[in-house]
Amino acid sequence: MTVQRRTFIAAAALALAGTTFPALAAKPLVMGFSQVGAESEWRTANTVSVKDAAKKAGVNLKFADAQQRQENQVKAIRSFIAQKVDVIAFSPVVESGWDTVLREAKAANIPVILTDRDVNVADKSLYVTLIGSDFVEEGRRAGRWLNEFVKKQPGKTFNVVELQGTVGSAPAIDRKAGFDEVTKGNAQLKLLRTQTAEFTRAKGKEVMEAFLKAHGKTINVLFAHNDDMAIGAIQAIEEAGLKPGKDIVIVSIDGVRGAFEAMIQGKLNVSVECNPLLGPLLMQTAKDVKAGKQVPKRLVVEERVFPAEVALKEFPNRKY
Ligand code: GYE
């Protein structure tokens, strides 16, 4: 084939693409995504959801794992700015300390979408929207379940220990606030200890061991800010010769598969759902933002409460 003929065919193909198949010619949206880490089952499901949704939506995803460190997230965001991505999305490990880097993104004209966790910035124009759960409401739901539970044993006082999530993170702050709000007037509940276990199983076990050493059988209730810490604590409780779910009532949050398994075995009493499947809504929102559409400042996902009694029936329907 001559050079001229080849050029002609290429030009004709391009013209065809431009007219008949515009999708082939369109440039894919490039998204830089900074993930918190891989600290929990929830986080793993969230990562899978984001990656799968990007593939399905034809979004070119640049994924960075921050290993639970804010400085890694700041670095990743700066590198996304340098690469001139179309949209930056991230799940901020903690709430504060984002003003400078978000101002840099704004100066570069790159829209920022928050997923899962909120930031604490004075200038709300530094991000377009936050897609995720209402963590205060999740904390309230955990507290309300506990209020109902203790009501069935009037006159009895319940000593509570609490495992908090990552210090300074939106879910740790908000879940505690929601739980405290609905339980503070309950004279049957007494908070013995509260400490962070960083949303991980290993830390959940370690901190629960310390709680048990200090307070032993006097602990009646554990409130864990996520299922993974509760699952770690269950091991500690069993190793101490006690029955999780019976000797110590356990309330946690997320509704991941591991929690359902623990509930089916009678070791966990309730898990408040937190939906990690944010990928499809994130991709749609990114496309809308890029197309110049107005999007709501807050997009909240629907969630439920799963007490142990329904765990077996609900298990086959669970997606994470
Ligand atoms: O509950 C926990 C994870 O930010 C909602 O982070 C998320 C929380 C989730 O590590 O398991």
UniProtKB/TrEMBL annotation:
Its main location: other. Keywords: Signal. SUPFAM superfamilies: Periplasmic binding protein-like I. Residues 32-293 form the Periplasmic binding protein domain. GO terms for molecular function: carbohydrate binding. Gene3D superfamilies: 3.40.50.2300. GO terms for cellular component: cell envelope. Pfam families: Peripla_BP_4 (PF13407). InterPro entries: Peripla_BP_I, SBP_2_dom, TAT_signal. It is found in: Cell envelope. CDD domains: PBP1_galactofuranose_YtfQ-like. Residues 1-25 form the signal peptide. Belongs to the bacterial solute-binding protein 2 family. This is ABC transporter substrate-binding protein. It comes from Pseudoduganella lutea. The lineage of its organism: Bacteria, Pseudomonadati, Pseudomonadota, Betaproteobacteria, Burkholderiales.
